[in-house]
Write a structure and sequence with these properties.
Blueprint: E1 6-11, H1 15-25, E2 31-37, H2 40-50, E3 54-57, H3 66-76, E4 81-86, H4 92-99, E5 103-106, H5 111-122, E6 127-128, H6 130-141, H7 157-167, H8 172-179, H9 183-197, H10 202-211
Parallel strand pairs: 1-2, 1-3, 3-4, 4-5, 5-6
Helix pairs in contact: 2-3, 3-4, 7-9, 7-10, 8-9
Length: 216
């Protein structure tokens, strides 16, 4: 429990659903509803003015989407927690999280689950409803099977090979011998690498390459 009531702003464009949320939250002594809004623009303005502890945010809103409203609220006031309560059971959860939401529930959630989620998010936890949590976990579980983009995609295959050798500490003559290139061609590749990576010298190129995992 928290010492002061958690101050909650409700954002939803359906009056009946807003009233239902009010009824659910008003049963908890540790929660205080400070206002409700029916569109995204109003939510951003109200959140800036009242500085709630938590915003219960729908995503499908007139004037300004819930995702964009979340982004603006969190950008202006990073301490404000946003818990999405939406009918959208799709990849909207990823857009909401990228915008700064700390939780995502579906509107079919039970009142006790909503209360539990509000309290958890108010304490800094991340909360996802059962179906949403499965989607998020599956996404990250599959992440290691998805092909990863190569380091420094702006470089050609040959330039990446040269950079790999530079990061390993090899001199130009050694690189030329290993890649069966002339020293002049190696120098040209290195000049292109410096230009594309916006580095001034070999030391900066090595630092950038090793930060990306090359040359280890």
């Amino acid at each position: 429990m928290i010492d002061e009531p958690c101050r909650v702003l409700i954002v939803d464009d359906h009056p009946i659903f807003r009233e239902g949320l009010r009824g659910t939250l008003s049963t908890a002594e540790d929660l205080e509803i400070i206002a409700d809004c029916e569109d995204g623009h109003e939510a951003v303005v109200t959140a800036e003015r009242l500085q709630p502890d938590l915003v219960l945010m729908d995503l499908h809103l007139p004037e300004l989407s819930g995702v964009e409203a979340t982004r603006r609220i969190v950008t202006a006031s990073p301490h404000v927690a946003v818990l999405v309560l939406s009918m959208l059971d799709d990849d909207s959860v990823f857009a909401a999280v990228r915008a700064g939401a700390r939780g995502y529930l579906l509107k079919g959630a039970r009142p006790e689950d909503i209360l539990r989620a509000v309290r958890s998010v108010a304490h800094g936890e991340a909360v996802f409803g059962p179906g949403i949590a499965e989607r998020v976990l599956t996404f990250f579980a599959d992440a290691h099977t998805r092909p990863q983009p190569p380091a420094f995609p702006e470089l050609t295959i040959r330039e990446r090979e040269v950079l790999q050798h530079i990061a390993a500490g090899r001199r130009n003559t050694d690189i030329a011998a290993r890649l069966h290139l002339s020293p002049k061609t190696v120098r040209n590749h290195i000049s292109n690498i410096f230009a594309k990576l916006h580095v001034a010298d070999r030391a900066e190129a090595i630092a950038a390459a090793r930060a990306a995992g090359l040359g280890a």
